[in-house]
Amino acid sequence: DRKDDKNLILKLNTGKGKTIIGLLILHSKMNSLKKPVIYICPNNYLVKQTVKQAKQFGIKTCTIGSDRQLPMEFINAESILVITSQYMFHGYSKFEKSRNMVNCGAIVIDDSHAVVDNIRQSMKFFITKEHSKAIYESFIELFEDSLKTQGLGTFEDIKNNLDDEEAYLCVPYWSWKDKIEQVTAILSKNKDSSEVNYTWPILKDKLIDSDCFISSTGIEIIPYRLPLEKFSTFSNSDNKIYMSATISEDSIMIKEFGIEKESVQLPLVLDIEEWSGEKMIITPAKISDELTRTEMVKYFGEPWIHQGGKQIGKVALTPSFPRTKDWEAYGAFVLNSNNLSDGIDYLSLNEKPRTVAFANRYDGIDLPDSMCRILIMDSIPKFESLEDKYISDTLPNSSLVSLRKIQKIEQGIGRSVRGEKDFSAIIFIGNDLVSFIGGKENKKYFSRYTKQQINIGDMISDFGKEELTSVSGKTPIMVLSGLLNQLLGRDTGWKKFYEEQMNKTPCDSNTKSVVDRLSDERRFMDEYSNGNSEKSVNLIQKYIDDYCDNDLERGY
């Protein structure tokens, strides 16, 4: 019934075979339409995994070889092309409309939320002071007067402090538009630079419709709207299938991919699919004020050997490298891009007493079964891009900012439970994260199963609090340890309680306003991009009247 939908969101729990379903859809489309088909992954690791799985099922796939050319078996619709999103979306892409465009029958986008992040990265300039000093200094000189009027002290910090992450300013749009010829000339002159080269062909004619942010370490230029239409193979494909985990909130894809709100409201799901896996979400601060972040980093950061000698993987997800310092002080194994595979290998060992700490990695890592039985979410995920920081600082209570944070949190908590029989404790620490998740307004944007798991966590925190007051000699750490042991020791009472509560998960009814809002925002952006300024202005006014209930947001 849904096979001819132009855009289709397919939602399935982790471990239920999304990859093989995506491959089968493409196999069917390739045979029926006699057109090339593409399977897009967010990274090379998943490309290899997908090809391996296709081989097990006898489905023909091909990848990009060392010559970087499109394989003939793909062009002739004899084999599914499996690629990363980075290969498709860049300035010299084989799928860009000015080149020999491939007329594609269907495209599957695996882990579509991670792919959105990748596309945003590839369609913006990030020019660092360290690598492109001449460009950086030219921009500072060009916009000095208008930046000073935005914040004189901050401007001085930008000029003087090389590593101050908080020092950044947005170039006012009127100044940016006035000086767009000089901006274009500076970037064109440096288009062979490694930080300009791959984005220049995408944005060179769209610079006027971009935002520019300048920090003490670099410059970020990002278009108002991702120009996906430049990649004709993608935008003109007969069918696009966006694959997403059941825990993900998909409305953000309306704004980024331009898909219709009906596609988000009516995803393709299994009629019989229910919740999958077991998550004990605990917020220690709700059990006792003594269980602070400092105490929890010490407790979980020190090497552990669980009762009975069993080794259990412990993983901490932190928002930044400075946040890993105290974990490291207690013996945690801190991972960066150079030792990532060593850390994953360590978690695969039988003996793994040390906690493994990741900085700002909330997706693309699978930690099933005993690799990760305790996942600590330490503090609220940070926005890396200057645009996200700016929106977050300007509109701290915006539902769209909350949605982006929640997307990151859900990506994080989805790392450790990767199948139906899998189980893990998820520990929330850090005052900012605890208060964000506790906010009634924010909670409603979580997907329904995560929301229910948070509710179950609140219940068991209340049980722990009662135990603390009613049983003499009990310390907060003992209560927390007792709760964890119920999960890790596979206590039948806990398992039954969890199952009963999860089976009562209510259906969602809260995302309608977000879906409508993002859909209306996309409409005025599309009209503006198509040159219909007057129509766009009318739509923006209606948007303000419908959704903006404070002066801050109306002004923005």
Structural write-up:
The protein is an alpha/beta fold. It is built from 27 helices and 16 strands. The strands form 3 sheets. The protein has a 6-stranded parallel β-sheet. A 6-stranded parallel β-sheet has the order 11-16-15-12-14-13, sandwiched between helices. Helix 25 runs antiparallel to helix 26.
Terminal-residue CA separation = 42 Å
How confident overall, as mean pLDDT?
89
Q: Which sheet architecture does the biggest sheet show?
A: 6 strands, parallel
- Number of helix segments? 27
Shape: globular
What oligomeric arrangement do these chains adopt?
single chain
* Helix percentage: 40-55%
Tally of extended strands? Answer: 16
Strand order of the largest sheet: 1-10-5-2-4-3
Strand content: 5-15%
What would you call the structural class? Answer: alpha/beta
Unreliable stretches covering 5 or more consecutive residues: none
Radius of gyration: 25 Å
Topology:
Elements: E1 7-12, H1 18-33, E2 37-41, H2 44-56, E3 61-62, H3 72-75, E4 80-84, H4 85-88, E5 106-109, H5 112-122, E6 125-128, H6 133-150, H7 152-160, E7 168-170, H8 173-178, H9 180-189, H10 200-203, E8 210-215, E9 218-223, H11 232-235, E10 239-245, H12 252-257, H13 261-265, E11 278-282, H14 284-287, H15 293-301, E12 314-318, H16 325-329, E13 333-335, H17 340-348, E14 355-359, E15 374-378, H18 386-394, H19 399-413, E16 423-429, H20 431-438, H21 440-443, H22 448-470, H23 476-488, H24 492-502, H25 512-529, H26 533-547, H27 551-555
Parallel strand pairs: 1-10, 2-4, 2-5, 3-4, 5-10, 11-16, 12-14, 12-15, 13-14, 15-16
Antiparallel strand pairs: 6-9, 7-8, 8-9
